[in-house]
Structure formats: structure tokens, C-alpha cells
Design goal:
Blueprint lengths: L1 H9 L1 E7 L14 E7 L18 E2 L14 E2 L9 E5 L5 E4 L8 E7 L4 E3 L5 E7 L12 H7 L3 H9 L7 E7 H13 L3 E6 L3 H14 L1
Parallel strand pairs: 6-11
Antiparallel strand pairs: 1-2, 3-4, 5-10, 7-8, 7-9, 7-11, 9-10
């Protein structure tokens, strides 16, 4: 029995850890993490064992280097601004068009459109904090399923239910850094540019799609 216990203690399991310190609000990529083997005795079921559970997610608390990543420290559809960001409601007069499929939690690209010049405004994608109707309510499914999923902490299904929601977008809130907002405001207010806000396929969706393909095979 003692020998069997020693063998059990020596058995290891593979988990993922940060290669270096990851600050809260960082969207985790493959370059941030590495695999590490640890004793099964010390394993916690909340520790991340596959890349699908971490890549594309956002760290909601700081992650220490070389320490197993716990799933509760990650969020896929975080709407709150990062430490260096604030949530800005974009004035309607600044907007030329918004993709109708955009929902809260999406990653979007912001372009500027003018009479003589049109270009991508920010190289980075921007997180949508809220998409409101003319009644100042979040655009969501009529059955209210997103609220039930939110109450159950099932953010995956909450996000899916919002994708099937219908409604005209009246205004949009974006999480921007101070520098991004000041540049956007200057271009629209002083130079007469208008914004085109486009939906883009985020890395997290690519991960989900890959996982679905693997399951089907």
C-alpha cells in the first residue's frame, strides 16, 4: 500500500502556466503561456489543462509567472474596461455606420471616413461595452434568456443568446484608453470625420471554431 501511494504521488498531470507575469485586463495569447507538469496530488480541478480554456480569454486578476492558471481568473466576454481604459458613449453625430450584428462583448474595428480620406483608426480591436436601443435598453433576445444565463454564471450561453437578438442600434459604448478617445474626438469634432464601426472575428471565436471542428472529426 505504501508503494502504491508513492507511485500515485509521483504521477503528474499537465497544466498551463504564464511564461511571465500577466497583468489584469490582458487578453491571453499562445505566447503568454507554456505547459508544465505537476503532481496529481497537488492538482486542483479549476486549473487550466488545455489551450482552449485560456487562449483568447482575459485575465480578470494578475497571473503570476510559472503558477498554474485557474479558470476563475479568466473571463471570455468581459465588458468592464481594463485598468488603462474607460467606457465612452460615442456621440451619434460622430457615427456614419455600425454593423447591425454587433453586440456587447464583441471586438470591433473602428475606421474613420472623410471626404478625402478613409482609414483604420486604431490598429487594435476595441471591446464593445454596451449596445443600446432608442429606449436606452441593452439589445438582447426577447425571451430574456440572456438574463437567465447571466444569473447562472453561464456567460457562454448569455453571449450566444445576444447574437440572436434583434433591434435597431441607437448608440454604442466602447472601452477606450484616454489617448484613443482624445484622438477619436479630435478627428470627428475638428476635422469632420465620421466613424465606421465594424464587427470582426475575434481570436476567441477562432478557438471555438477549431474546437468544434476537432469534435466533429
Amino acid at each position: 500500500m505504501i508503494q502504491l501511494k508513492q507511485v500515485e504521488i509521483q504521477e503528474t498531470i499537465s497544466v498551463f502556466v504564464p511564461q511571465q507575469f500577466i497583468d489584469a485586463g490582458t487578453r491571453v495569447t499562445a505566447e503568454h503561456i507554456t505547459e508544465k507538469r505537476m503532481s496529481k496530488v497537488a492538482y486542483d480541478p479549476r486549473m487550466v489543462k488545455t489551450k482552449d480554456e485560456v487562449i483568447g480569454y482575459e485575465a480578470i486578476v494578475p497571473l503570476a509567472a510559472d503558477e498554474p492558471i485557474h479558470s476563475w481568473k479568466l473571463d471570455r466576454h468581459r465588458l468592464m474596461p481594463r485598468r488603462e481604459e474607460s467606457t465612452f458613449r460615442i456621440p451619434k453625430e460622430y457615427i456614419k455606420s455600425i454593423a447591425s450584428s454587433i453586440r456587447a462583448g464583441d471586438q470591433v474595428k473602428v475606421y474613420i471616413s472623410g471626404s478625402e480620406d478613409s482609414r483604420l483608426l486604431f490598429k487594435e480591436t476595441v471591446t464593445v461595452a454596451a449596445v443600446k436601443s432608442s429606449g436606452n435598453t441593452e439589445i438582447s433576445d426577447d425571451a430574456g434568456q440572456h438574463l437567465l444565463h447571466t444569473a447562472a454564471d453561464d456567460y457562454e450561453q448569455m453571449y450566444v443568446s445576444r447574437r440572436y437578438a434583434t433591434g435597431a442600434i441607437d448608440h454604442i459604448n466602447l472601452n477606450l484608453s484616454e489617448q484613443q478617445w482624445l484622438e477619436l474626438d479630435r478627428l470627428c469634432r475638428e476635422e469632420g470625420f465620421l466613424l465606421v464601426i465594424a464587427y470582426t472575428l475575434p481570436a476567441i471565436d477562432s478557438v471555438t471554431k477549431t474546437r468544434s471542428i476537432e469534435h466533429s472529426q
